[in-house]
Amino acid sequence: EMHAFYKGLRAVFAGELNLEGAVVDGADPLLFQRGNGVGAKNQTARVGASGLLHGPAETVPDVRDVTTWALPDALTFTDATRRGDGSIWFLACAEDSPDATRDGPVSAVSLGRMTEGAAETWPILDEHGAPLLEKTEGLAFDPDDASRLFVVTDRDDATLPSHLLVVSVS
Predict the structure, then answer these.
(1) Which residues of the chain have pLDDT under 50?
(2) d(CA 50, CA 140)
(3) What is the pLDDT of residues 27-66, one digit of tens each?
């Protein structure tokens, strides 16, 4: 039962609640709010881990450090991870969707890295050098090679399998 938790998040995040990623940052989870849907913004917030993990179900954990991120090209967060060097990386897609639950066509897909109060993004290119236009929603660094990422696509169709992509970064 996490009703109080989600109610607390809805009070701090803009628009429809659409959590699309989380990383551990210090002792606390850093949550990623996807900026699609009515009034939504790309935002992150830290959540007090002790209240989240050990408090009663009706406890609203401490939510703080809410940050709004300006991403280019109508990009919105779709996942996040931490690289072995401690840096925080994310996936972002530009998807023409009317709200947080209905899907739409994808016009851009990027990989990003967070820096002090800013985000850098780079388009993900397919094997032919063209911009990737598949919605990506899963991200992990290869534990044996920090220049390789594993990316999972979401085909938005239960009859089609997702793809596992290998992305190289330099």
Answers:
(1) none
(2) 25
(3) 889 999 999 877 889 999 998 876 666 666 666 678 899 9
